[in-house]
Specification:
The complex is a heterodimer of chains A (about 130) and B (about 140).
Chain A: H1 2-30, E1 40-42, H2 44-53, E2 75-77, H3 92-125
Antiparallel strand pairs in A: 1-2
Chain B: H1 8-31, E1 36-37, E2 47-55, E3 65-74, E4 80-83, E5 95-98, H2 103-135
Antiparallel strand pairs in B: 1-5, 2-3, 4-5
Helix pairs in contact in B: 1-2
The chains are: A mainly alpha (about 130), B alpha+beta (about 140).
Chain lengths: ~130, ~140
């Protein structure tokens, strides 16, 4: 099954990261009018690098140990282009652009994944 | 309540309802913009919702947040004193007290709230389309 993993792993990791990023940006958009809210985001580059390297899970040697978060994303704070008076760092145009870029790149990965699957299917069927 | 926020739809839906509360208070304020009473204590005070970010996990580690209206407060603004002896509601000196609603402020708030509502709606419809496309993968 390694062949399928090799073919599909990267794009499925990408989809997962893109989905997580969509949620974060949706949260930012939801809090556009909340005073003191700080916009969050993840770096796709860092997230995908971590996903590829596949860090080994942290061992739990005691029943009372907490689970180490198994998501590989480090969530940062967005630097505002133009800081607003109420301490909210959500800038709607920025969020809209980031959201649409993220959605477009999600669709790109989806198309590539589809093509990979079709390629594998062609190879399996041998038609 | 917090553990119910599982996906992007929960995040956007809660924001929609928060903006709806905001629009309701604006409607109430505008409707009462010209309400006049004889006693300044009874004058209508503009209502404002208090928005607060709600983190999806207690530690706030995954950074996901939605919004909730924690309270709706009446602004402590002095009502406008108007001399109107002909008004049946006027006090013994002929004064009535009009609600201190700033209509321009309310209109701007209304535009902002409706834009925010639209943005959240757009998020929902985009994510729905993406989900449908993801389900159809490999077809």
């Amino acid at each position: 099954m390694q062949v399928f993993k090799n073919a599909l792993q990267l794009h499925s990791d990408t989809l997962a990261i893109r989905e997580q990023r969509s949620k974060l940006i949706a949260g930012n958009i939801a809090n556009a009018s909340t005073p003191e809210f700080k916009a969050r985001d993840i770096s796709f580059k860092d997230a995908i690098t971590r996903a590829i390297e596949e860090e080994k899970p942290v061992l739990k040697t005691h029943s009372k140990h907490f689970d180490v978060q198994d998501n590989n994303y480090e969530v940062g704070y967005r630097q505002p282009v133009q800081a607003s008076e109420d301490g909210n760092t959500v800038e709607m145009p920025v969020e809209q652009v980031q959201f649409s870029e993220n959605v477009t790149r999600y669709q790109i990965s989806l198309s590539l994944l589809n093509k990979k699957i079709n390629g594998l299917m062609t190879a399996i069927k041998g038609e | 309540m917090i553990d119910q926020i599982k996906n992007v739809f929960d995040i956007a839906a809660r924001s929609l309802s928060a903006q709806q509360v905001r629009l309701n208070t604006i409607a109430s304020n505008i409707a009462n913009a010209h309400t006049k009473v004889g006693d300044p204590k009874n004058a209508y005070r503009p209502l404002k919702p208090i928005f607060e970010a709600v983190m999806t996990d207690e530690q706030g580690q995954d950074g996901l947040a939605t919004v909730a209206v924690t309270d709706v407060v009446a602004l402590n603004r002095a009502p406008t004193k108007i001399y109107e002896p002909a008004n049946p509601a006027a006090d013994k000196d002929g004064f009535v007290y009009e609600s201190p609603v700033d209509q321009e402020e309310e209109l701007v708030e209304m535009l902002d709230a409706s834009r925010a509502y639209q943005n959240n709606l757009e998020v929902i419809s985009t994510m729905r389309t993406l989900m449908v496309r993801t389900i159809d993968i490999g077809k």
